[in-house]
Amino acid sequence: MFSDSPADMASHEERVKSALVSMPSYEEISTLAARFKAISEPSRLKILLALSCGELCVEHITQAVGGNQSAVSHQLKTLKDNKIVKARRNGKQVMYSVSDEHIMTMISVAKEHLNCDE
Amino acid sequence: MFSDSPADMASHEERVKSALVSMPSYEEISTLAARFKAISEPSRLKILLALSCGELCVEHITQAVGGNQSAVSHQLKTLKDNKIVKARRNGKQVMYSVSDEHIMTMISVAKEHLNCDE
DNA sequence: ATATCTTATGAATTGTTATTCATATGATAA
DNA sequence: TTATCATATGAATAACAATTCATAAGATAT
Q1: What pTM did the predictor assign?
Q2: Hey, are the CB atoms on B40 and A45 less than 8 Å from each other?
């Protein structure tokens, strides 16, 4: 007999209940997931990493990540729609930057997590 | 004339350079992206949110997120392969839990980011 | 050993998403 | 206005990933 005692099983049920009551709404989960998805493609993550060094225009982002203008523009749109980056126009150019400190924190925490293993 | 001065353009070039030199390797970017991808599907994110309340066995996870056992098992594999969750066997059951504090931090920062807008 | 409970996996189908190409839009300068 | 530079977008194809179903494997009890 190696499994949990009846008392432990009861606490498991409690945890199922607390997981159920504290579960965010369908909408919140969808939005969160979409935002993680936005930074889950290497091409877009690379853009985000480039922008974590400072504001850049589309052409410079394209240089920094390597690729073509159209692809980068599509990728930036995804990042912007998901509030990962923000944009401001400056003459003919559009300058992109990381949306806020939360995103910066996520990047650095993710990098730390990377160092923990391997 | 509304665009940046020549001096500003020079600093832009500097930022391209610093983005290029500080850019993580292809492998690091791939790993990071894969980890974000693991938590970027609503079904898997939901599992992670459930586990953020405490360790659960597969059956209870299945109850907490709604779905079928096979799907949940596949989803758990993806999460585990990407070090988002960890597993330990307890008799017939396998108990899953959030891999470490980095992941917990990421979840809470992402939730905060959600509160900032909308 | 056999039965039962719990979890994991392979293969196929279905559904999604990324990238490309061509072109459109926005901004400035001449 | 027209030309040019910078960025964005629509549509299509091509690459990828999620879910399902059937079944296998691991663990314990009888």
Answers
A1: 0.91
A2: no
